Structure formats: structure tokens, C-alpha cells
Amino acid sequence: MQKLRKSAIGVLEVDILGARDLADMKNLYVVAKYGKKWVRTRTMFATAAPQWNEKYTWDVFDVSTVITIAVFDDSNRDARRQRIGKVRVRLATLETDRVHSQSYPLLALSPSGLQEMGELHLAARFTCKSWAKMLAMYGKPLLPKMHHTNPISVPQQNYLMFQAMQMVALRLARADPPLRREVVEYVLDVDYYMFSLRRSKANVCRITTLFSDVLAVGKWFDDICRWKKPLKTILVHVVFVKLVCCPELILPTVFLCMTMIGAWNYRQRPREPPHIDRVLSRAELAHPADELSEELGTLQPPHINAVLWWYTDLAYPGELDEEFDTFPTSKPADVVQVRYDQLRGIAGTVQTVVGDLAAQGERLQSLFSWQDPRVTPAFIVLSLVMAVILYLTPFRVVTMVTGLYFLLPPWFRSRTNQLLINFYTRLPCKDDVML
After folding, report:
1. Which CATH number fits the domain that encloses residue 119?
2. Cystine design at 27: which of 74, 165, 171, 348 (Cβ 3.0–4.6 Å)?
3. In a domain, 157, yes or no
4. Which residues of 150-163 are buried (b: 16+ CB within 10 A; e: fewer)?
5. Residue 39 pairs with which residues in a beta bridge?
6. CA dihedral defined by 114, 287, 181, 179, rounded to 10 degrees?
7. How many Å separate Cα 160 from the centre of its chain?
């Protein structure tokens, strides 16, 4: 008999211990969400240092997932001021069978700037039931097979996402105790794809940070060419002449270098899951008067259709009218406001694309930086094995096998079993540490 669902590969245990360094007395409670399961702690009344000491468990079917834990103030009816802060922990950054106990900073954005609300003390442990199933999961696609055979457009994905959020909000509103819609929206990050000048600048900084490594390599090569360090220059000459004389050693040398880089970074490997990066998020550099007020002014849409309007990929009827308008504009204020909202919708799409490009480079960096304590060791071993195989195999055979593989007919291919692509998309990036 076929099983209704796949068996879990592990168990996630989270202890919500307490909070500290809060500004004033509040009625605090914590909401944690992982997968389809939502939990809420009891409310601690009139305290600046609540102690919950509550433990929750989840079945884990995929380690390339994130648990979100948010703190709220029940004494304030303003949806904006209820938010104390939240923490996102990617399960791939947790070491297996080890208790990670640390305090996470609670940061909240307001029109006046970034506020440090306190710290949340958590203890998390991921227990693996089957190492074979867990490692095999890295080669499987993140999305269902239907998405690869019949993909849907981005506007349709956004529509389904917001409809799912609305259904979850209605279900949790009938729970005991109920959760308000604002709580669900904050935990699910429904405003992530909306335009924000702060987020746009942060995504650009992420890309420039990636290119800083390329510039460092260029500077190193320039120093070699200028003979600033003669010993290194002579060594580079020897390696260069050897590779020119024996081109079949190029690929084994590349894989061997990747193995050495990964092994060298073992000493600087992170021992705990990363916190929210306030510098990378540009939360402290954002101008309160315009950037944050503009960003936070879009977080409370009056209706779900108003949110979906941001992502509608249609031709606006006033595009040509705007193109032939004078500068400065001669149109009334209501027309200018509509154009401004349309421009922010388009800018939100560009912002998302820039963030996705930055995430691709950050995934490549995570291969060598030990952010995932399971992926990097496997990558080092595979690189070493590939170096040996490429050294022992004639270069012509390697070229022929590679070419025939990429030229396989479509009926011998699978749209979902692209091992390298599936593996790469599961690597961690810095989206989890962004505000």
C-alpha cells in the first residue's frame, strides 16, 4: 500500500525560554510557525523579562526550510506597535543532534528608525532520523513536479500566495486563543515583495559585496604581475607553465583548489545560526523621514485586491499618456498618485529580481563558508573525488561524456531530476537575515 505522505527525516525541538532587556512592561506572547503548524505561548502580563519555558516539536520533512518565531505585545491595540520583533532560523544551519541555545536580538522598524526591543532566548535542536534520506533530499526539487511540467506565472504565484495567507488568517482567527490577521501577515512576510527603498539599497549592497571578492582576486593578480611578492610570482609562473604543458591538469587543479578553500574555511565556520543583520539590511542607515515612512506606509493594505494590484503584470492604459506628458507634469494630483503607485509596483519587481541575483551568488559562497554543516563537507569530499577522477581519466573522454550528456534527447531527460540545480537552489543565502 502506498503511503499518503513521505516519512519525516527528523524532528525539530524548540524551547522558547524567555525575553530580556525590554524597554518597559508589556503583555507579551510568542507565535512560532514551521510548516503548517502554528503555536502560541501563554501571555505574560505586565513584565519586562517574561519567562515562558515552553517546548514545542515539529516533524521535519525538508531541512531547506525556515522556522519563524515572532514576539507580540497584547496590551497595545495598534497593529504596528504590537510587533516586538521576530527571528528566522534555517534548519540547514543547525548541526544535527546539538542544542543551539542563544539569545536573538529583537529588532523592529518604525517611521522613526530602527528600534532594539530586547532579546529572545531560544534553544533549538534538530534530530535526524535517517542520514540517507536527509542527504538525498538535497538532490530533490523544492517545488512539486507539476510546477516544472506546467509552470505558472509570477502574478499567479503571488495571487495564490495571498489567497493562502487569507485562508490561514481566517482559520487562525477561529482558533483558541485567536490570532489576529496582522500577526499572520507579520509572520508570513506578506510585504516582502513590495517596494522598499531600504530593501532595494540593501539588495544592491549584497551584489556589490559579491563583486568585492572578484575585485580582491583582480588585485591579487595585479600584485602578481607587478612582482610585489616575487616568491608568489615565481610560483604562479611555475604553475602556469605546467598547466600550459599539461592542459589535462586544469580541471583537477580547479577541483583541488576548491577542496583546499573549503577545508581552510573550516576554522572560521559559524557555530550558531545567524542573527538579523542590521548592517546588511541598511536599517540603521535608512532615512526615517522618507525611506522608512514610505516603506511602512504600504504594510497595511485595506483589502487583498489592493495588495495583488502591486503585482499585476498588465499594460496600464495611461502609459502613452505618461510618455508624452510634459516635464514637470501637467496632470492633476490624482493622476500623478496613480502613476507613482504604478512605478512603485514596477520597482518592487525589479527589487525582487535584484535580490534573487544576489541570492544566487550568496549560495555559491555558502558552499565554502560552512553555513550548512552538511553541504560543505559533502562538497569538499566530492570535489576531491572529482579531482582524482579527472586526473585519471583522459581529457578527451571527459569532454565527450560531458558533451553527450548535454546533448541528450528530451525523452531521456527529466525536468525535475536536475541534481545540480536542485542542490544549488537548496543552499542557504542571506534572505533569512534581512529585515
Report:
1. 2.60.40.150
2. 74
3. no
4. eeeeeeeebbebbe
5. 32
6. 0
7. 20
Does 223 fall in a domain?
A: no
CA 299 → CA 292, 307, 422, distances in Å?
11, 9, 33
Residue-wise pLDDT tens for the chain (435 aa)?
456 667 889 999 999 999 988 877 778 899 999 989 999 999 888 888 889 999 999 999 999 999 999 999 887 665 566 788 899 999 999 999 999 999 999 988 877 778 888 899 999 999 998 888 898 889 888 888 788 778 887 778 878 888 889 999 999 999 888 888 889 999 998 877 788 888 888 888 899 888 888 888 889 889 899 988 889 899 988 988 988 888 888 899 999 999 999 999 998 888 888 888 888 888 776 665 556 665 666 544 434 444 444 444 445 556 777 777 787 888 888 888 888 888 887 888 888 889 999 999 999 999 999 999 999 999 999 999 999 999 999 888 988 998 888 888 877 777 666 788 889 989 999 888 888
In the β-sheet with 10-20, what is the strand arrangement from edge to edge? 51-60, 10-20, 113-128, 99-110
H/E stretch holding 379:
helix 375-392
- Distances 73 to 25, 93, 189, 335, 365 between C-alpha atoms, Å: 10, 29, 18, 40, 38
Residue 33 lies in a domain: yes
* Structural domain includes residue 210: no
Q: Residue 307: what residue type?
A: V
Range of the domain at 64: 12-151
Cα separation, 89 vs 141, in Å, equals 21
